[in-house]
Each structure stands twice: as structure tokens, then as C-alpha cells.
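Fold this sequence, please.
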Amino acid sequence: MLRISFSPEDIEAIKYERFHHPHPQVQQKMWTAWLKSCELPHHEICRIAGITENTVRAHLNEFNEGGVEALKTVDHYRPKSELDKYQATIEEEFKQCPPASVAEARATIARVTGIERSPTQVRKFLYRMGMKFRKVAAVPAKADPVTQETFKKNNSSLGWRRPRRAVARFTS
């Protein structure tokens, strides 16, 4: 069991923050510290707060290292991609020669940075950069744009629709 000494200022700050801090995880940390200041054993703190003993120990160790201010911090692990370091270089390369597929983008990234990633990871990186896949359709070689425009103008009126078939209503 950890032996922690709480100053009266710490106890007052903990009492206030356990209900008034905007982040619920910080409120839980403050609740754990307050229960410990009431000299409850760890298994009772776990039962009351609904957390595990490892979490209780982690919160109390955090308080031992930095006091109330350390309990107010919320640090979530967010991994960073190695490709983020080369984002500007990759963007310049793609501006000069845009990739037609993810496989082509993957090969270009491997050539430029030396980092190889799976197609899924490359696709996620491209989306984070703001790029997206655009499907390109072929234009017929013999199409005449002037003829198409005149056809659209002449045939796209509301009267051009095929008339609906009348529905017969039967009564018995």
C-alpha cells in the first residue's frame, strides 16, 4: 500500500476538481486521490470508484510525482507516422507526377523516402494529406462536342419525357 501525505491545500483542490473539472478522466483521478486521502485501502477505492488496483496505483503514483497538477493532465497515446516527416517532399513529388493508383503512390513514396508501407497504410496517408481517388472516364474519340450540346438543348426539356401509362382502377 502506498503511503501518501496530503497537504490541506491538496485536499481542498482535490475536493473541488473531482466534481468541477471538465474532463471525466481527471474527475476519476481526483476521486481516487480523495478516497486515498480518507485513508481507505486500495480494494475499497477500487470497489467505490469502479476501477482496478493497477489504475489506483497509477493515479496515486502520478500524484506522488507531480501533485494535483499532474492529475489534471490527460495524455492519450497517439502514434505518429514516419511518413509525416516527409509529407512536404511527397506532396511536391505528387504535384510533379500525380500517381494513378495506390500501388504507384506506394512505389513513389518508397523511392523518395526509403520507407515501405502496405497499400492500406499508403491509402490512409494519402487521405490525411487531402488526396482522394478520382475515377476518370474515357472520352469517345469520335465525339463532337457541338453536336452533343445541341442534342442536350433540344432534348432535355420537360416535355421530352415519355408519358406515363394510366393506371386502371377497379371497384367491386
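Residues 82-129 form one domain. The radius of gyration is 33 Å.
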